[in-house]
Fold each of these.
Amino acid sequence: MTDTKHQLPVGPLLTYYGDDFTGSTDVMEAFTASGIPTVLFLQLPRKEHLARFKDMRCIGLAGQSRGQSPEWMRKELPSIFEGLASIGAPILQYKVCSTFDSSPSVGSIGCAIDIGTKITQGNWSPMVVGAPRLKRYQVFGQLFAAVNGVSHRIDRHPTMSRHPVTPMNEADLRLHLSKQTDKRISLVDIADMSEGLGQTKLESFIQTDQPVVMIDVADATTQIEAGRLIWENKGKQVFSASSSGLQYALTAYWKSQGLIDESMQLPIAKPVDAIAVVSGSCSPMSAEQIRWARENGFEVSRLDISKILLDDMMEAEIAQQANAAIAALALAKSPIVFSAEGPDDLAVINFDALASHAALDRTQAAKRIGFALAEIMRRILDGSNVKRIVVAGGDSSGAVGSHLGIHALTLSAGLAPGVPLCRAWSDDPARDGLEIALKGGQLGGVNFYGHVRAGQSH
């Protein structure tokens, strides 16, 4: 069915694979807030799981490719993309982080584009990274991101320029992406958009080689125009490596055309007596959030990395942390177990030395920390009545989500831009209905954990 002025086509509108768990929930928030029902699977769904969510207009799969090699991608992503494409939505998205951190050897966005464009066979591959709601802006191809109300060019960003694995040392996303793919990369820039030349420029770029076409987004006007360009030129099926800026652009355009209701709002969560948190993030914002929690009555405890990395000491450390958290919850106090407090934490600075002492490489050590946090959370849930939890950090979110036996998430309420409160779906009755927020390291305000507990949107 062709969309008209007042109707979108029937069936799924978009399917996506998220390159990490926290960013995957961001898509769900952006669409659900505009009345587009979305489900996020944490593992490849079985037929009965898909049948349970047959009315969803957007179907996603949370992944962890952001930390993987191109060899891993070429092995794993083709079948995933093919499965998502077979659902029949006109847009297949590889959801990337709005800070675009990636490299030719780790989390290569270019590699994902090379794979995805072969499957969809569209005549172009649109890319939207700017998302003003998340304080991400793309202007003349340059990416900017805000911290505490101050916008930084991404190669001068206090966190992303110092990312321990994929530091962003180039703000021009065309140059950055060109190191990851041989595809032609073009740009519909902000001047084209403001002068009404977007369609003309796009048509001049589209040829038989499926070029990547980046679209600048810096404000509400360019966001609507980006959504229009993509939706009206999507063809039968198009592949897009984009942040949740794609969702914000599409919904902004659909609203401008009367295709969806502009008055939709996310529900507000009810307050709870206590929450439980595990954090594997080492971002400055996560550090500020931990400090705020410590000063405001949360039971904050540091995970001893040196013990977690040693086989004969790991179990005792996990048990001690879980038992202390359970005891805190019995007193209606909210526990937070964290592995690092900012990028200058000694646990971060000395991480390679700690891993070497335990005869582990960096990847093995990181996975062990993720497992430890996941196991601590599992024991907290089994030993208490807590029903609302938070996991901070993309890798940690992936480890915890899979460890708890959760197979899908839907959105329950808004908390902070990019960090919704989700409802967990599981075949295990003890996990089904759990409320969970998966928080990227840089997202949320300083008092984010207080808002989660109080059920307030911020």
Note: The mean pLDDT is 90.
Amino acid sequence: MNITVMGAGLVGSLLSVLLARRGHRVNLFEKRPDLRVSQWEDGRTINLAMSERGWRALRLVGLEDAAKEFAIPMRGRMMHDPAGKLTFQPYGTNNECIYSVSRSLLNRLLMNLAEESGVHLHFEKKCTGVDLADASVQITDLHTNATRTVHADFLFGSDGAFSAVRAAMMRHNRFNYEQYFIEHGYKELTIPARPDGTWDIDKHALHIWPRGHYMLIALPNPDGTFTCTLFFPFSGDPSFASIRTREDLLRFFRQNFPDVLPLMPDVAEEYFRNPLSSLVTVRCWPWVYQNRAILIGDAAHAVVPFYGQGMNAGFEDCVILDQLLGEHPGEWARIFDQYQRTRKPNADAIAELALQNFTEMRDKVADPAFLLRKKIEAHLHRHYPDLWTPLYTMIAFTNIPYAEAMALGRQQDRFMNSIMAIPDIHSQWPELDYESILKENLVHHSPAQSILNY
């Protein structure tokens, strides 16, 4: 089949590889320059947090080892309180870790593999029109302004949260669409490397400065730097609107992030130079139009970054679609229908979990009751792994479907609420008969039995 893929980001590049390996002729179009030649310098990256779902996809195309050469394991959250005190919260009980991965380096790997797989890559080509029923797109060359129409058997929209392919679907009857912008935006900042190229703070942690209604995070890079992201309200006091001058910014950092300010000599210059970006959740349905045009990744289900699952979820879309292509060769209507009906509930689940995790990261991670709750959960997982797997573990370190994990997480929340309501729980918790309580209150659950192909 002749297939057009719009958008050469991470998901579009991976999808193109999988389609080409199935024997299809694939044309991949991207409006930006070739990332392998010209860096996409837009100040809007947010480092990737690669977890099991992402690694599963890279294993599928043989890139796991290559990606791990520049991936940095993060074994937990390092919390920074206003006085500079550090508290480490491990992600798991068995040295599980997520990985800080450079978006651009990973995208380059996937582009190279796409080209090696026979995909035809076209850069600086903007989509200026879409005919869904014909699976054709109008492509304008950004150098010459010349426009041509590209026809295909199938059109995949992997062109991000503000997808042109999805915009065309929205003009048709009975297409449901919702976008939700949170009140916070973000700016990216940098902790530079030391003169010897090493890291100024622990490189094996995701650093968080939680401050109630806002927070700063930092993820390590291979060159000794950290990419920092300030998540901050657009309006109010304090907010992006209230910080107008260099002195405003430095005063704000001295008051709220005093331990990191000395590590960021160019913070004011970066703050006023880098763009202010918004954070959006996108939900829509259906993802397929007349079995000719298909949405995938952020084009179908953009999420906020607070569970670190946006790229992982998009990669999982590709894995599931590839499985269906293998199981039902040539049955395109069946493949597309099963793809969207399988993925939609899981996309909705991770969108909701990502929004919830923002509240946890900025408000709760420094709260003593929350920390005790997490300590008890870790105890349960360590001693009763067949009865208790924490929600974060299910999301980050297994392939349990997001919707199933969320349902189990809600059941666990109810259980933990009852535990935390026990009088003097802070002193009583080590003595409780958890095995009996768990067996009486929770459905038996073993993650090994719940890992589904789709």
Note: The first strand starts at residue 2 and ends at 6.
Amino acid sequence: MQALLSRCILALGALLTAAPALGQTYPSRPITVIVPYAPGGSVDAVARIVAMRMTEKIGQNVVIENVAGAGGVVGTQKASQAAPNGYTLLFSVESTMAIAKFVSPSIVQYDSQKDFQPITLIGTSPLVLVGKKSLAASTTDDLLKLMRANPGKLNYATSGIGTSLHVAGEMINIEGKVKMVHVPYRVGAQMVTDLMGDQIDLAMLPLVMALPNYRNGNIKAFGTTEPTRSPVAPDIPSLTEHPDLKGVNVTVWFGLFTPAKTDMAIVNRLHQAVAAALQEPDVRTKLSETGLRIVGNTPAEFTTFLAAEVEKFGTIVRAANIKAE
């Protein structure tokens, strides 16, 4: 009886100390970060900047694995099925984590809120509504008047159906009570080329993609899609500064996740490594050059943020009846 009691006490002690021990011994081998997009894109670039410094902070190699396909769905699905042990992470964005399930419900088999544990929101960046140089409008107010006088005659390009760029364009249609016609592209750079060649009227672009040609005077910039002006381009107004577009709020964001049910000691260890990496001057400089506003919030804060984003995008997609199928 005494021996049995001793074994029970030892087992209970092991349970009580397991979590701290796990956090202290993790990681003991390299960590893989799945990026659900092809190498060379903006998501991949930001992930590699962060992973490089995470390697130093966490004491193990943090390796990027690009798993592209279906607009980010394939890689995200793979990450959702990984063991929740902190050795397979996901670096993803709003399109796959807050929009895809509403636009392509038969394809998306994961639930971003149930199948993943948020670690850190790395940063955010606005989109910007730009126009061809010859467009007969120079301000947001001019543009709204032009669109209202010509319903359905002006078009706008994005990188595809169901992307955050598309959602932002439809939010402008809804909020501004106008009718721009959506023109989806497969290659982002082609949008800028066609815009400068007067092949399209308007485009919704990531700020970093729009800035060079805006600065050179090749295209017009009407406004960004975040409530406040971007520190990267404070001369470009926020669309919300116009009274008819106060509800426009679409942010491109980058975040790090781990599969759900990962021990919180591991989640916190990963967060600490990311937070430390984001304080490094070279990391901050490189991320700022991509147009990113660094956030670096806690797992709890990121969880709350994700829930709000899912609700917001779901409302917009349903109102605009955006479907990729």
Note: Residues 2-25 form the longest helix (24 residues).
